[in-house]
Structure formats: C-alpha cells, structure tokens
Amino acid sequence: MNSASRYPKNALQERVTMKKMEEVKNGLCYMCTASCPTKIHVSDGKITKIELTDATATSCPRWKAQLDFIYHPDRLQYPLKRTGERGGNSFERISWDGALEIISGNLMEVKEQYGPESVAFWIAYTKEPRPYFHRLAHAFGSPNYCTESSNCFSATWLAARLTYGPDYSDFATQDIEPGVKCKLIWGNAIQNSSPMLWRAHLEAKEKGLKLIVVDPRRTKIAELADVHLQAQPGTDGALALGMMNIIISENMHDSAFIEKWTVGFDGLKNLVQAYSPERVESITKVPAAKIREAARLYATQKPARLHTSGNSTVQHTNGVQNHRAIILLPAITGNIDTHGLSKPSAKINDITLHELVERMPPGVGSMRFPIWTKLYREMQANAIADQIDSAAPYPIKALFSAGLDLQFFANSDRMAKSLKNLDSIAVTEYFLTPGARLADIVLPIASWVERYILTAAYSPVIKLIEPAIQPLGESRSEWDIYAELARRLGFGELFWDGDFKKCAQHIIEPLGVTLEYLRQYPEGVPNHLMAPLKDETKEGFATPSGKVEIASSTLTKYGLEPLPIYREPPESPLSRPDLVASYPLVMTTGARTSAYTHSQFRNIPRLRRLMPDPLLEINPADARPRGIKSGDTVVITSPRNRIRMKAKVTDAILAGVVSLPHHWPGEANANALIDDRELDPISGFLPCKSQLCQVARD
Ligand SMILES: Nc1nc2c(c(=O)[nH]1)N[C@H]1C(S)=C(S)[C@@H](COP(=O)(O)OP(=O)(O)OC[C@H]3O[C@@H](n4cnc5c(=O)[nH]c(N)nc54)[C@H](O)[C@@H]3O)O[C@H]1N2
Ligand SMILES: Nc1nc2c(c(=O)[nH]1)N[C@H]1C(S)=C(S)[C@@H](COP(=O)(O)OP(=O)(O)OC[C@H]3O[C@@H](n4cnc5c(=O)[nH]c(N)nc54)[C@H](O)[C@@H]3O)O[C@H]1N2
Ligand code: SF4
Ligand SMILES: [Mo]
Fold first, then answer.
1. Which residue range(s) make up the domain with 628?
2. Whose CA is nearest to atom 41 of ligand 1?
3. pLDDT exceeds cutoff 80 at 529
4. Per-residue pLDDT tens for 610-641?
5. What is the DSSP letter of 379?
C-alpha cells in the first residue's frame, strides 16, 4: 500500500476532483411542453441527476423519469430502413447519408410528378422544433404544414380571437391572481394536467376562494368546489347559455360594459330565453337549482375569474361555439379585469415562410375549415385521410413526419390504412412506435438535453438552452435533420447552410440581444407580456368592430351563425334516439393521467407502475346492470369500432357517461372509436369527448 493512500486527505482530494468533473447545466424538462426549468448534473459526459429548479411541479411524477427516458435502452440511436411490410417490425440500420438520400429522393420524385403540395408535413405534440419544421414545409413548396394543434387548444384560441380579438386572452392561463374571489374552472382537472398549479389552488381555496367546477367527473379540484356542475360531455354551450339566462333575467349583468363594449347582446338576450335552467337540465343533466346557484355565485362574487381547458370544451362538433358562449361570461358580468391579454413584447422574426401559402394550392382542410386554417396558419390534419383517399383536389403521396403516433388520429384504423397507401413516409422519432413502423425511413432524434433549444415562438420567455451532453449514438437534433434535408433538396441557404446559431440569431434579432447574451443570462428575455384585457377598452378590442363580438362578424362573413348558438352533438342520446338502444352511453376520452404525456412513457417502468392499465371509468348505476366490477376487462363499442380496457367502477363519474384514457396503443386505443367525418365546422376539431358507445364485460 503506498503511504499516500492511508491519509484521509487523499480521499478528500479524490472527491474534490470528482466534484470538479461534475458540471451543473441549465435545462428544461420536455417530458411535456410545460418545459419546467431544470438543473442538469453532468459527469464525464453522462447525466447523473436532473433536478427541478422551480419547485411548483414537484408533484409531477414525470420529471423524475427523465433519465429513464434519455437513457432508455429502446431509444433509437441509428437511422433505420424498413425491410418488411409497412407497420411490421423489420428494419435494418442504415447510414445517415443513405437515409437522407432516400428521403430527399422520394420527396423530389413526388414534387416532380405531382407537385410539392402532394407532400404532407406533420409534426406531433412537440412544440420546440415547429418553426424549423414549418419553414421546411413551405420552403419545399407545400402548404401542408399540419400539427397536433389540429385537435389541441387552438379551437379555444380561435373562439377567443373571434370574440375578443387577436393575441390570446388568457382564459386558459390558469394562475390564481391575488384578489380574485371566485374561480369558475371549466373542464380542467388541474392536479393531473397542470401539476405546477395544484398547490396554489389548494392554498387559495383555504384562504376562501369560491370555486365552481364544470366536469362530468368529480376530480380532485371538483371535490374542493362550492358548486360542482356535472354536465354531460358536449353540452357545455347549453350550460353557459343557461347561466347567462339567469344572469340576464336576474339583472346581474354589467349593462354599462355591455352597452359600450359589446356587439350582439340583444341577439344573445333573445337566444338565452330558450335556455331556462329547467330546459338546460334536460340537455346537460345538471340540476336546475345548481345552475342557478353557480350563475349567482359567479356573477356576484366579484372579481371572478374564468379558467378553461385547452380541449374539454372544444373536442366536440360544436366546440368553438360552446367555448364562445363560455368565454362570454366574463364580458357580460363585467369580469374582464381579472383576465389578461398575451401580447408580444417585441416582435421576433417569424421564420415560418407562411406568407408563401397564399401562392400555393389550397392546403389540406383549408376549403372545409377556412377560418381555422387561415387564422391559425396551419392546415387541418383531421382532413388528411379524406384527401389521401379521395386525391381531391389533388393527391397526397408522401408524408414527412416529426413524431408519428397513430392513436392521435380519429378512426385510427382508417388512418393507418390511408397512410399505408402513400408512396413514401419518413419519420423522426425517439422510439420505433406503431406509427414510425409505417415509415420507410426512421430517423433518431436527439433529446432535449442533447440539442440546442431556443424557446421562442412557443414560450413567454426567450431562452437559449445549450446541449448538456452529446447526442446519444448517432441521433441528431431536428434542426440538423431539416437543414441537411433542405441542402439536399436544393434550398440549404434558406436554412442558413446548417448553422443553427445564425438562424437563432436571426430569430432574436429584433429583441436587440445576442445569443451570447442569452447564453450568459439563462433566465432569458420576456417574449410575451400579459397586459390587462381591460386595457383594450382604451383603444378598442382588436376585432373588426373594435368591441367584444358576441355576434362574430367573421363568422357572418363566412356564412356561419354569428351568435354562440348551441347545437346538440350529432351523436348524442337526444339527437340520435335511434342509436341509443345499441349505444346508450356518452363517452368522453382523454382526461389526463399524471404518469403519461399522451402516448408517451408507457415504456418507462417507474411511470407504468403508476398506471399499469388503461381504465374506463363507469358509474355503478351503469356497471351493475352490465355485471361489471372494477378490474374486469370490458369491450367498448362505438358505431365505428370496438376496443378493450379494464373497468374502474366509480361514482365520481356522472351516470350515463364513461370516461376513457387516450392514446393507449393497440386494442385499447380510444380514438379507434371516434368519428373522423363529422367535425366542428369552424375548427375541424374531432369529437373525442362526445360520442355514443356501449360497454360490456368481455
Ligand atoms: N400529465 C399530463 N399532463 C398534460 C398532458 C398529458 O398528456 N399528461 N397533456 C397536456 C396537453 S397537450 C393539454 S392540451 C392539456 C389538457 O388539459 P385539460 O384538457 O384541461 O385536461 P384535464 O385536466 O385532464 O381535464 C379534462 C377534464 O375535462 C373533463 N371533461 C371531459 N369531457 C368534458 C366535456 O365535454 N365538458 C367538460 N366541461 N369537461 C369535460 C374530464 O372529466 C377531465 O376531468 O394537458 C396538458 N397536461
Ligand atoms: N381521444 C383523445 N384524443 C386526443 C386528445 C384527447 O383528449 N382525447 N387530446 C389531443 C391533444 S390536446 C393532444 S396535444 C394530442 C397529442 O397527441 P400526439 O401528438 O400524438 O402526442 P404524443 O403521444 O405526446 O407524441 C407523439 C409522438 O411524438 C414523439 N415525440 C415527442 N417529442 C418529439 C420531438 O421532439 N421530436 C419528434 N420528432 N418526435 C417527438 C413521441 O415519441 C410520440 O411518439 O392528442 C390529441 N388527441
Ligand atoms: S409539468 Fe412535469 S413533465 Fe411537464 S415539464 Fe413540468 S416537470 Fe416536466
Ligand atoms: Mo394538447
């Protein structure tokens, strides 16, 4: 033994050296797009630990699983080429050069034979690479930039935009503001979908906040509510009109604000006449007395704040109008002071090239859903299967896809069939998902700790996050992949010849800061500021009339009903009595579960243990006559398909309604049951949350 090692000093020195090797870097958790800030501990090029910097989302189980995700043994590390059937499992490793050569060759072939519009570009849930992806689609010449926003959040944005004007009124921003006496939470189960807000709500409730919750399920936040309105899914518009009926007939509305700052109030007043609490009870199943109680509480406990979900109210055939009725509650009660308007503090450069779309053939879904596609500046992905199948007004022949989760698409089996008919599919992914297995080429992507991230278009704060470690295996960042493809397709200069930093510098240029500045100040630069919505009453709302448009002039322009009318979902017990014998239950899908982000992370054991099986929630009154007990496997049938899940019998769900989790693969995929034909006429959203079904023991 050498003498030095006997001294504790040496052990200490060793620890000091170890410590010196460990670096702590700034990061963002991208297990979901809330992108909570993190500290990443790196030692010898490997991540040893990731901590949350901001303690608000600590109840979220997913961030602790980041290392399980990043170092998952099944993560793709090399490009793959399919060798067998589409959808099968036969792939072989291929070089990047070979993979990109095949993809660019396929895309050019379609471009020459059919035109660039015949290539569809689809990007799934992830937001951060979207501006580059958007640019790739339009630089190639295709209008068909489609994203998961075709069925997420954007319909609520559109409802707010049609009603209050541009930028985003923060009905979906769910913070608690000091001084707010009453909160109306419409279809959001905070503890699962927004863990960072859960504690603040508990504390506010303890301090006396009055709470009204609209949800067919008694969620944790509904348990805290003073009034819980258990409405049948898809009937939210009728409920909002019923609340306005009470507010107006009992003179609780704010006449001064309405007169000065709204258009269409007389029409609304007329419309709500038909929505007495008793009639609304027959549509929504909410007792009339509770509707009165909620309306009075909301209209009198001022200031009150509305808090909506990104999709509970809009994943229906009547979603935009239902959501418009809901968000009119603040205007007619003079409660807009508690709401803000998200405004860009400084314009960053828009790199999407979206202006080119004007000169291209009509994009997918843009003739059927012109308002949404024009204002949201994307094409409607829910119309893509129809266009693949009909080839009208032109054929879709190839798909370039960033993430491909087949469970996203309604009537998913039909979508899978349509995709199989394409000439070529290329997918960038983390794992060889069922969707990726349809591809000819699958490209492995670097995760959020292995790539540069500029939070710009999708974040209120612009930050630059540097890679903490090298990309795993041969995986590459989305930016690198798109820039290299652009070069091969002949427009590399539009991607700054592959130089990410030049692109990023161009995006932030109007802010007057440099990338070096962002590197040194990781807290970033504000991109959007929340201005009080009431500031709009100084110069007028940014709608065509300058006022809050109860009657929307844009809807009139497009030949649609301007008032927020309620239309019964086309597949409901009231509108389809003929279907009720076979499909008596109303089905809602996609209430969030804390362990998963949509289809992701079921392959991470520590998260899977939290929710091993897909559970259908059913009321004892519906379970008993069917002989169903908790834990039984049940078959759920809709007019389109049948799937299997396990039952959870619970009186927390309204009788006559069942709730299914979304995006489970294979025979538990809820979207296999959902109609892909009758969509919201304004947004094109899918009716994921109001369809008929039957449930039986397997
Ligand atoms: N853990 C986790 N968090 C997530 C996500 C995730 O996948 N996992 N996804 C993120 C994304 S992309 C989004 S868009 C948000 C979504 O966030 P939300 O849509 O707000 O999702 P939830 O909080 O699950 O709330 C949905 C609630 O609406 C109720 N509901 C169902 N149908 C209806 C209806 O017709 N009307 C009304 N009023 N209520 C109804 C359900 O019972 C459920 O309790 O969550 C985000 N957060
Ligand atoms: N029935 C029903 N359907 C719904 C909903 C519902 O409530 N009910 N909610 C809708 C909503 S709000 C949303 S947001 C969508 C979400 O639906 P999806 O967009 O399908 O969401 P994910 O399953 O999270 O992600 C899809 C794929 O993207 C991959 N991926 C993740 N990050 C990246 C990345 O950075 N790059 C690349 N290339 N791939 C990546 C994942 O591995 C995954 O395979 O589902 C919608 N569909
Ligand atoms: S909410 Fe959870 S999963 Fe989403 S970014 Fe924050 S810590 Fe990560
Ligand atoms: Mo979403």
1. 577-697
2. 591
3. no
4. 999 999 999 999 999 999 999 999 999 999 99
5. B
